[in-house]
Amino acid sequence: MQTPSTETLAPPAPNATAAHDNATPEALLAFMVTNWETTQSRVVPLPEAARFRARREALSRLFPGDVLVVPTGHEKTRANDTAYRFRPGTDFYYLTGNLEPDAVLVFLPEGATHRTIAFVEPNPGKSDATFYTDRVKGELWVGPRLGVPESAIRFGIDTRALASLDEDLIAACAAAPLRVMRGIDPERETSLPPASDADVAFAAALSEMRLIKDDYEIGELQKAIDATKNGFDDVLAGLTKAKTERYVEGIFNLRARVEGNDVGYNTIAASGRHACTLHWTANDGELHESDLLLLDAGVEANSLYTADVTRTVPIGGTFSKEQREIYEIVLAAQDAGFAKCKAGEDFMAPNVAAMDVIAHGLERLGILPMSAAEALRETNQFYKRYSLHNVSHMLGIDVHDCAKARAETYKFGRLEVGMVLTVEPGIYLQPDDLTVPARYRGIGVRIEDDVLITASGYRNLSAALPRAIDAVETWVRAARSR
């Protein structure tokens, strides 16, 4: 078994000082590290710590005898010495509940089970000069780390200082196979054995653990969706003042930070022809009352579970005849997809049902240059010129959740009670598409809801946001009149 390099497992240290920093006199350092009040730790156990422990135990049972490594990653540089706001690695958070950067979760074999250890950054306190001199991790610069004993209390897990990871991991890998969650901490991986099929299976197992949501997860998703509804209401109320898509993005993103951790993904605020671009995030277009606004946005809750909702609304409050005709097809396609959202159905069943409605609707309007039957033929799939994407993906801590699950358990698997997925058909009629009658060109419509599979069928978690045409028009007009 190839073991990690003995040189170092730690990533390169970021610059603790910058070129424009002044030198720090020894006398100042001595002054800075004295006469600080000793404060009593007020750390309390995480309320859901038992739930995270159960997840670790379930993962341990899947890989007896193997060393398992799950890093959370580091802050990423936005520009020069400015970092993006840190968001923990999904799998690390799912197993610990810890939101801090730089940590690594390790499962060390102990008989038929594992000893699970979280390696975290210590909190050296104000007796160590780095609290003042280190602009990357120093307490006076970025706030205090939780620390080693405090992390153990908070997360209910054996915790050690990150500096001891090298020695412990090298010793463990000398006697047991290694599986690593790859792609989260590339610098550390340079000292580990090369990626292998064992790592792929490990990542798939963690994704598949997340396919079924428990009551807590469903509750957190509902919180995120409810906050998202508030964000949509905010946007519609601001339409009389909004002049650009960026204004729309800003209004929604304010709600995301007020009620949650952040947005779950870059907000898509696409008006007019921009709605024909599936992931339009430039959000630099002007708003016109005769156009539609396609808003695809989701609040990420403080627990990191995210909503993913799309509504397409008439900016002026009323759909035109052509906009209405396209919207009606998409709405009917979504209803057909909903009808297939039940335990035992193929994951792709909602997509098949929705695409059938879309193809026949486009044929009826004279947009398809062939019959719906021909367009739907597996060897053709011509309808995709106008619909582009499948209608569903899993939803959870990631907006495209469980992405590393095996195809046979996800795309080609069956829906099960506890799964949460989107149902989001769309029609996108490009402004330069000569197969489309001129009156329809530049219209883009998507309707997206977040659906929980239940024992009796499904529950639309985002049903509070209007979908029907008349209800959408009423929603927009009422918001604009405030």
Descriptive account of the structure:
It is built from 16 helices and 17 strands. By secondary structure, the chain is of the alpha+beta class. The protein folds into two domains: 26-209, Creatine Amidinohydrolase, Chain A, domain 1; 215-480, Alpha-Beta Complex (Creatine Amidinohydrolase), CATH 3.90.230. A five-stranded mixed sheet has the order 6-5-4-1-7, with helices on both faces. Strands 9-10-12 form a three-stranded antiparallel sheet. A hairpin with a 2-residue loop joins strand 16 (449-454) and strand 17 (457-460).
Any chance you could write out the topology, listing elements then pairs?
Blueprint: H1 26-32, H2 49-62, E1 67-71, E2 77-79, E3 82-83, H3 90-96, E4 104-110, E5 113-120, H4 130-133, H5 139-142, H6 148-155, E6 158-161, H7 165-173, E7 178-180, H8 186-189, H9 197-209, H10 215-237, H11 245-259, E8 262-263, E9 268-271, E10 292-297, E11 299-300, E12 309-314, H12 321-339, H13 349-364, H14 372-376, H15 384-387, E13 420-423, E14 426-428, E15 444-446, E16 449-454, E17 457-460, H16 469-480
Parallel strand pairs: 1-7, 5-6
Antiparallel strand pairs: 1-4, 2-3, 4-5, 8-11, 9-10, 10-12, 13-16, 14-15, 16-17
Distance between the termini: 68 Å
Helix content: 25-40%
CATH topology of the largest domain: Creatine Amidinohydrolase
Strand arrangement across the biggest beta sheet: 6-5-4-1-7
Number of strands: 17
Regions with little confidence, pLDDT below 50 for 5+ residues: none
Shape: globular
Helix segment tally: 16
Tell me about the largest β-sheet.
Answer: 5 strands, mixed
> What number is the mean pLDDT?
94
